[in-house]
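Give me the fold.
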Amino acid sequence: MKSERNNLTAVVNIRLTTGERAAVAENAETAGLTVSAYCRRLILGRTVHAHTDSAVIRELRRVGGLLKAVHTESVGVYSAATATALTELRHAIGRVAR
């Protein structure tokens, strides 16, 4: 990968509004990339994942654990509600993980 960076000699200039430039910079920061690396990935059709995805997945899993505890401690009184919520959490984790 480092040798790839050494070969980055061609330059592409594009014009953006101030707002567009700010949005690109914010998206790059969220992805944990420089603006150049972020734009290069987008232009080349590569996937860009937000840096926060793993933190969100961890939090969703933590919430799932809390829901499971509610189900267990309530001896199934809320089983329909917790089952629905856990299914939704699984789907949310799947969407974030893509």
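DSSP finds five helices and no strands in the chain.
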